[in-house]
């Protein structure tokens, strides 16, 4: 009775085996033909080809290693700054002035619970020989650049990443693109921050010019993310992307050195913080819209090859803003305390950190009402919207 059923399944599995064998044979046929041709050549031809193949395999080995090794990746990286120990807001004097009177952030900005932005902007000028508090936002931004291009290789401008898989963009495949997307997300947070440092935080608007170090940092951070040593448009040699970002890092560090000497400005007024929060909220809103579009229109589950790009870009953006927002809490502590924002600010930082706990091995873009394949994109979108909601609420409180 069971013999026909057993025979049927034997035939099915045999057909599947033959199909797999034919597929593998079809894939390997060109490689076998090339190997046969190579063996029949003289050494004067074999030698250069062999050297080229060894170099190619070496490059691919290095490329694969760099895409998989996330050096110094640490969702708790903010802890090492110990922002809670800071006593002064960014840019304000920290060293006692002549006569023994100390000029600190608290002395300048907490004289009344509802101190106006004008009062915050007219703090006494530092006395000769004083030192001023460095900007935590600038420190974190410079360190994130260092993490992206010095501690790790910048994947997006590597030659083998640009050439793709047999001409197919790596972003269109499920392999070797997660780190590149993550780095671009971190880079997006840095770019947004450098723009705000130039436009508002690093100058007293209407009364001072743009800081040259910050201006150069912003310009360098806007450079193309995919530039290699040589390009076709325009044709000729180029400076690769990491070199520009390293220059931006040095410019940010130079700004902080000037700030320590009280030779630069960090304008820690509440209206500047409002604008900063508004810009970050808008940036996260754009990412939320990108995730929503992918989640709603391309629910391919584990087979959506672009879901991982969206997920890791958003993850990198939150990774960057986690540090930037924690640093902003230190740079604007007086404003935050005066306006009663400490509880919601702390909650926002916790939510940013909570989002970084999501680290699935394979990103799935399943239906939101599905029960087989998870929906990691929708989950990430939920965290982004929570953070953005808190940013909008804090902005509204400051604007009252």
Automatic annotation (TrEMBL):
Residue spans crossing the bilayer: 12-35, 47-65
Domain of life of the organism encoding this protein: Bacteria
Biased composition (Low complexity): 101-115
Keyword Cell membrane: no
Keywords recorded for this protein, A-Z: Membrane, Transmembrane, Transmembrane helix
Stretch list, region Disordered: 95-115
Protein name listed in UniProt: DUF2333 family protein
Organism classification: Bacteria, Pseudomonadati, Pseudomonadota, Alphaproteobacteria, Hyphomicrobiales
